[in-house]
């Protein structure tokens, strides 16, 4: 099974997300996936088997418990394959981040000018908070099925997302 086929299933992606936080027992994974996705324990076991056989997770016994952990090699292989496509979106995302910063700066300058206009000889003080920070970014699933970290702006699933939120 190809790595992207494995990642194509939402239950298996959720298992990987949970294991990215650290090692977990199979029972805990079954409980979470049961609550969130309505999966039975046997269904979760099948997903864990697929992840184990494809090398995405490893398992170790701890008494009667089976502890699962994330294996990075298959994810690194996916990342290496995606490298050939990064150029398609990186420059556009950088340009988008620049435009967001300009708009954010312009709104702040307009807001400051309305409150107290500066003297003619006095330039407005530089505001270090004008640069976009991590709070101004979203993880977005791109068309290749990869999560991309981009600035928050525009419309997302029909709801407006404010860059100053």
Shape: elongated
Quaternary structure state of the chains depicted:
single chain
Question: What level of helicity do the residues show?
Answer: 40-55%
Sheet with the most strands: spatial strand order = 1-3-2
Describe this structure in words.
With 165 residues, the chain is of the alpha+beta class. It is 51% helix and 17% strand. Strand 4 and strand 5 form a beta hairpin. Helix 3 packs across helix 4. The two termini are 42 Å apart. The C terminus is likely disordered.
Short description:
51% of the residues lie in helices and 17% in strands. By secondary structure, it is of the alpha+beta class.
Topology overview:
Blueprint: H1 3-7, H2 10-20, E1 24-25, H3 26-37, H4 41-53, E2 57-62, E3 65-70, H5 73-115, E4 137-141, E5 147-151, E6 155-156, E7 159-160
Antiparallel strand pairs: 1-3, 2-3, 4-5, 6-7
Helix pairs in contact: 3-4
List keywords for this structure.
two-stranded antiparallel ribbon, alpha+beta, 5 helices, 7 strands, disordered C terminus, single chain, 165 residues
């Amino acid at each position: 099974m190809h790595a992207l086929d494995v990642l194509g299933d939402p239950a298996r992606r959720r298992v990987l997300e949970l294991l990215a936080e650290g090692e977990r027992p199979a029972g805990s994974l079954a409980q979470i996936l049961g609550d969130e996705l309505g999966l039975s324990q046997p269904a979760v076991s099948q997903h864990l088997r697929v992840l184990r056989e494809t090398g995405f997770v490893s398992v170790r016994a701890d008494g009667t418990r089976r502890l699962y952990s994330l294996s990075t090699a298959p994810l690194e292989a996916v990342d290496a394959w995606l490298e050939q496509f990064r150029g398609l979106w990186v420059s556009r995302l950088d340009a988008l981040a620049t435009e967001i910063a300009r708009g954010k700066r312009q709104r702040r300058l307009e807001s400051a000018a309305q409150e107290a206009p500066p003297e003619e000889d006095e330039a407005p003080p530089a505001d270090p908070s004008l640069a976009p920070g991590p709070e101004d970014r979203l993880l977005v699933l791109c068309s290749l099925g990869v999560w991309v970290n981009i600035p928050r702006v525009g419309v997302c699933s029909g709801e407006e997302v404010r860059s100053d939120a």
